[in-house]
Amino acid sequence: MDWGTDLWDQYDIIDKHTQSGLELVEKYVKFVKERTEIEQNYAKQLRNLTKKYNPKRGCKEEQECRFSNHQSFLDILNEMNDYAGQRELIAENMMMNICIELTKYLQELKMERKTHLSEAKKAQQSLESTYKQLDSSKKRFEREWREADKAAQYAEKTDQDINATKADVEKAKQQANMRTHIAEECKNDYAAQLQKYNKEQSQFYFSDMPLIFNKLQDMDERRVRKLAQGYVLFSDTERHVMPIIGKCLEGVNKAGTNVNERNDSIALIEQYKSGFERPGDLDFEDYSQGINRASSDSSLGTLGTPKGPLELLGKNRSKPFWLFSKKSKLSPSPSSLTPLSTPPASSPANGPPSPKFGRDPLSYCLKEINKTVKPRISSFRTLGRMRLTPERIIVMPTVTEDFGHLPPEQRRKRLQQKLDDIGKELQKEVDQSEALEKMKDVYEKNPQMGDPASLSPQINQTAQNMERLRLELSKYESWLTEAGRRGDSMLRRDTLPEDALSYRSHSNNNEPYSPDGTHSEEGTPDPSQAIYAEFDDDFEEEEELVAPIGQCTAMYNFPGASEGTITMQEGEVLSVVEEDKGDGWTRVRRANGNEGYIPTSYVSISLSK
């Protein structure tokens, strides 16, 4: 069954049907375009949403990313950002594979339909023209036949008229014969036109129009097939990205399962643990018998007025308690300075006598801190690049050639790096010296190639450079050896008991040791310097190569331009050697043995259980 045979007389229906099919294609293209706009707007809103809730660099939220619930939320934001990218990909593929392709194909169909309809119109016009000629010849034949019939009747009437002359009768007969002849010619012309029209009409209805209708049918079927492909692409476009969208949703699910409330609690403890002991009981001060200084050996807060429980717990305070913070000065409160400036007379009845002040109150306070502070306080590691002086508590370090301003581990690494650089330069100079010597031998054996004396300045310069580099190499090697010995001695110092450490500290300062932790200031040039020496020894302590305590994955790139830091790339996995002590830095190690510090907020840490 085809349109040319069964719909030979339904030209108008075929015309409307093909036009309706093209309009459906246009409508579907418009529908897909609006769908792509919705997808693009949806993806844009998702990206804006993830950008809105992503923490900015250096903000407080970024520092909290070390907690699993915060990190999982960031993972969800990243997955939603990828999900938005897949929605954009859906919109792009629909636009390219459906809208653009169907629009191009629609234009071709419109041109083809226009051509077929034009051919049908031409065939119909040709048939109508032939029919007009047939009708004209038919009317002429009818008219001439009537005239011939009238002429014949007039000639017969004239012939029967007795009054008519012979000439009138002959004239009437001739007129009748002429009209009859003309009528016969019109009849023959009409017959020829009728035969021509019948032939063209047969060709029009049995050949030309069926062929055009079949072409239109083929065009419409191809349109339907192409539109069906567009329908299939509408679903396939989204189905192709469903695996990736599924992975994004799996990532969201995984982010939820990765939350570990216990690890978050431990991370909070490790991040904000101060390392100080709880304050001890306050001694009773009997002002009726004179003021005696009461100190607590378990707290660093004995420099000023005793703190209340809310102040010790950090309530209504924006920063934790710190010995050298701006809010905690070394100078005692006026109430405590009064007995320091005018010490009362000692009374055996009231217990131990008040300490004697041979120096200013600040020196005494520093001396008392030296007695109460433990030999090593890990929370002070961030002061490793600072120096303490009585005139100015915190001063910026002075950069020295031997890297003495750095902590021991960082100093040794910088010295080793400097030795490697000098070794490379020295090897380069040695290679150049050997090349010059070989060239000099060639010139001596073949004077025509060059003058050996012309190489003497370069040889002398190379020798001087080698000598200079050897001296620098020896100098840095001695510094590295010194740093290594000092680090080893500090490591051995960590293994001693607390009493032995206290004894060694006092012995190094030529102070007599007593089990209760007190010492006399006799033989001590300056008691206030004891704490600085002890702090410096603590900062320059070097740890041995220890086993990693966990792993971390870099979330951002870090250049590692500062001293003692190490570079890392996003996605790199490093071994955690030392946790963050509250200063925002974590010590890590690469697989090749390189160690250094990185910002804690730049990595995702997973500690070994």
Could you explain how this protein is built, in words?
The chain has 609 residues and is mainly alpha-helical. It has 13 helices and five strands. It has a five-stranded antiparallel beta sheet, with no helix packed on it. The chain starts with a helix and ends with a strand.
Task: Write a brief structural summary.
The chain is mostly helical and 609 residues long. 61% of the residues lie in helices and 4% in strands.
Brief descriptors of the model:
5 strands, 13 helices, five-stranded antiparallel beta sheet, 609 residues
Percent of residues in helices: 55-70%
Based on CA atoms alone, the radius of gyration comes out at 54 Å
**Uncertain spans, ≥5 residues at pLDDT below 50?**
291-307, 315-359, 371-395, 487-543
Average pLDDT for all residues: 75
Q: Which strand order spans the largest sheet, edge to edge or round the barrel?
A: 4-3-2-1-5
Q: What's the arrangement of secondary structure elements?
A:
Elements: H1 3-6, H2 11-53, H3 60-63, H4 68-160, H5 166-257, H6 261-272, H7 309-312, H8 334-341, H9 361-372, H10 408-445, H11 456-494, H12 498-508, H13 530-539, E1 550-554, E2 573-578, E3 585-589, E4 595-599, E5 603-607
Antiparallel strand pairs: 1-2, 1-5, 2-3, 3-4
Helix pairs in contact: 2-4, 2-5, 4-5, 10-11
